[in-house]
Write a structure and sequence with these properties.
Strand content: under 5%
Order of helices and strands: HHHHHHHHHHHH
Radius of gyration: 20 Å
Structural class: mainly alpha
Number of helices: 12
Helix content: over 70%
Number of domains: 1
Length: 306
């Protein structure tokens, strides 16, 4: 069923945007293609950072490095194509974790830890660059970790108990994020790499059109554009480009160069990863079928799922 929904989403969400992809390619090819190619390589490093953080926080059991990459690519594609605010990617990731054998409470706790660590860098960068958006989340979200732990009774849970288990997972996830930071696992730097290399890809496409910005205005322009992802548009298409182009022009970038640089950036950060993500999703579905068979076999034999 999920595969059918994804196929319909691709037909109605992605195909109408092929004209946008064509325009992005036309603009990108009018710049220095070596810099655009460099931006694509930098974007691969950004995704590697995401996968590293994923393994640090969500790895283990059936979630190995190949599974991490499949979920990363298909989840980010879902985020950028089908939903605003990242909900598409979150839903797909949670689905994959549940298929790997994790219960709802554990999935919620682990996803909370992952998103908190990932977006802590986002909010810190906004604040450090002089934009105060997100400060409230920095204050409120860690306080959730002070909420008391809830005891759970063994046995089959009712709907209300399952919902409580999911809600309990949020403060548990905050506490888990704090413990993970305390371990100083180098893979946690993947959160920094995800944002840093993505911003660096934008800097490379600006160079492709003969433009250069210092770190602070570049970060502000980048994150102002990223706010377009909150709009109810597939992948923030239109909102991200408009916000980013406007911010770059406000920072002194030539208007024509700003348009070309942003469309080239979106080509390497949105459309190329999305194409890879659609392929990765098919591979992920096949892998989850294997996980389901393993879990059913373990259940029939009385073994605990691993």
């Amino acid at each position: 069923m999920l595969a059918v929904v994804a196929t319909v989403a691709i037909v109605y969400g992605a195909l109408p945007q092929l004209g946008v992809v064509h325009d992005a390619w036309a603009q990108a090819s009018s710049g220095d293609m070596w810099w655009v190619a460099g931006a694509a390589v930098i974007e691969v490093l950004s995704f590697a950072g995401y996968a590293a953080l994923f393994m640090a926080v969500l790895g283990g059991g059936r979630i190995d490095w190949p599974a991490s990459w499949l979920i990363t690519l298909s989840g980010v594609a879902a985020t950028r194509l089908f939903a605003a605010g990242g909900t598409g990617g979150v839903a797909l990731t949670a689905w994959a974790l549940r298929r790997s054998g994790r219960d709802a409470g554990q999935t919620t706790a682990e996803m909370t830890s992952f998103l908190l660590l990932l977006y802590a860098v986002y909010m810190s960068a906004l604040t450090g660059a002089g934009v105060v958006l997100g400060v409230g989340a920095i204050v409120v979200v860690p306080l959730l970790g002070l909420l008391p732990r809830q005891t759970r009774r063994a046995g089959r849970l009712s709907l209300g108990a399952r919902l409580r288990s999911i809600l309990d997972g949020i403060p548990a996830g905050v506490r888990r994020a704090r413990r993970l930071v305390a371990t100083r696992d180098p893979l946690l730097l993947g959160a920094v790499a995800w944002w840093t290399f993505d911003i660096a890809a934008l800097a490379a496409t600006l160079h492709a059109f003969g433009q250069h910005l210092s770190a602070a205005p570049l970060i502000v322009a980048y994150f102002m554009g990223m706010l377009g992802n909150l709009l109810p548009l597939p992948g923030g298409i239109g909102g991200v480009e408009g916000g980013m182009i406007g911010a770059l022009i406000a920072c002194g970038v030539d208007s024509g160069a700003a348009v070309g640089a942003v469309l080239a950036y979106r080509l390497v950060s949105l459309w190329l990863p999305t194409a890879c993500g659609v392929i990765a999703y098919g591979a992920l579905v096949r892998r989850t079928h294997t996980w389901t068979a393993e879990l059913e076999t373990a259940s029939d034999s009385g073994e605990l799922p691993g």
